[in-house]
Design a protein that fits this description.
By secondary structure, the protein is of the alpha/beta class. The protein folds into two domains: 219 residues, Alpha-Beta Barrel (TIM Barrel), CATH 3.20.20.10; 126 residues, Lyase, Ornithine Decarboxylase, Chain A, domain 1 (Beta Barrel). Helices cover 27% and strands 22% of the residues. The chain contains ten helices and 19 strands. Bound molecules: pyridoxal-5'-phosphate (PLP).
């Protein structure tokens, strides 16, 4: 028999990721209040709930009252179905935004997963499946209104609408589209997409009178009443990313990421730090190396302008981020803050996801979804 592991899990990793599920639930309620009573607020939990853990996140949101969840892939939908319990009345709806790949339709039906159909091919396959099995299953239709990424083109939508058999055998509950520039309220594409969507939805309702509409992601919820329609699909803002980058963040921080200090040293003559010797530590500088690197989701592009915090003190990255280690210049930090058990706040209340993203040359979404798998993960309140 293998020897038992006697150390505590939090002592066996290089960093600690704390996810505040109460703050997450509060963010969902905040977005729900913004959406108001006529716009249903769901939650996008694709990519392992933006890297924070599908199961704890989905359970916390379900407990807060969230009734519709959105994922990208069928596999994510199946995993979420296991977490949330069998489909049916009273259990949350799960929408799979990429829809069925050919041959997977049966799994959607069997596990109560609602597909978003975005191409004429998906629509045809779903119809064939529904007719062959004599089932009328809910689906959503996605139209592209100016992003040119995913969804029926204007021409495809028109020809399907003009064809009396275009949507035969389908019972779509809604038309949806996605905004390209929702985080930039002044961008003219927002208004154009809304106009195209409004006209598409009006046409769609000639065929499906009860069809709902959905346009808003997190940032879309902050563009005003006319972007709301019947349901919203927020993701990033739930997890604390600022949905209105030009303004103070209205969301509550959900994530704290702390890296452990492995070693503190003083250099007794000016000397280089890290791979490539790109940084010169001045004579007498104090350096702290933490056990976290790019294998844990820090970006190597963060090296040059990276900062973090030790207690209230801002510290700069010294040299290059390496795979498992990063060094900081902590010359101004008292030794009492760097003793055994000391941690550096990589993400926290003083240094947000958006700060880290900006310093890394990216966006909060990429920071979250790049979070590593080697952390000790703590969920607050503790998971039952
Ligand atoms: C990811 C995604 C969302 C969520 O967007 P956020 O900006 O994270 O709120 C909504 N709708 C679609 C189609 C998406 O792909």
């Amino acid at each position: 028999m293998a020897a038992p592991i006697s150390s505590r899990p939090e002592d066996r990793t290089g960093a600690v990721l704390t996810v505040d599920l109460a703050a997450l639930a509060e963010n969902w309620r905040l977005l729900k209040r913004r959406a108001g009573p006529t716009c249903d607020t769901g939650a996008v939990v694709k990519a392992d709930a933006y890297g924070l853990g599908l199961e704890p996140v989905a359970k916390a949101l379900k407990a807060a009252g969230c009734a519709t969840f959105y994922v990208a892939h069928l596999d994510e939908g199946l995993a979420l179905r296991t977490v949330l319990g069998a489909g049916g009345i009273g259990t949350p709806r799960i929408v799979v935004m990429h829809g069925p790949n050919p041959g997977t339709e049966r799994d959607f039906a069997a596990h109560g997963l609602i597909p978003v159909l975005s191409t004429p091919g998906q629509i045809k396959s779903w119809r064939n499946f529904s007719q062959a099995n004599d089932v009328l299953m809910e689906s959503l239709i996605q139209v592209d209104t100016g992003m040119n990424r995913l969804g029926l083109t204007a021409a495809e939508f028109s020809s399907l609408m003009a064809d009396p058999d275009g949507f035969v055998g389908l019972t779509p509950s809604a038309l949806m589209s996605h905004l390209a520039c929702a985080d930039t309220p002044a961008h003219p594409l927002n208004g154009q997409q809304r106009e195209r969507f409004a006209s598409g939805l009006a046409t769609f309702r000639l065929k499906f009178a009860d069809a709902k509409g959905s346009l808003a992601n997190s940032s879309g919820l902050f563009l005003g009443q006319s972007f709301l329609y019947d349901f919203a699909r927020p993701g990033a803002a739930l997890y604390g990313v600022n949905p209105v980058p030009a303004n103070p963040n209205p969301m509550i921080p959900v994530v704290r990421l702390q890296a452990k200090v492995l070693q503190v040293r003083r250099v007794d003559a000016a000397s280089p730090v890290g791979y490539g010797a790109t940084f010169q530590a001045p004579d007498g500088a104090k350096l702290a190396t933490v056990s976290m690197g790019y294998a844990d989701g820090l970006l190597r592009s963060w090296s040059a302008s990276g900062h973090a915090f030790v207690d209230d003190l801002r510290v700069a990255v010294a040299g290059r981020v390496s795979m498992d280690l990063t060094t900081f210049d902590v010359s101004h930090v008292p030794d009492s803050s760097l003793g055994p058990g000391a941690m550096v706040d990589i993400i926290g209340s003083r240094h947000t996801i958006d700060d880290l993203a900006k310093e890394s040359g990216t966006i909060g979404y990429e920071i979250l979804t790049a979070l590593g798998r080697r952390y000790h993960r703590r969920y607050l309140p503790a998971l039952k």
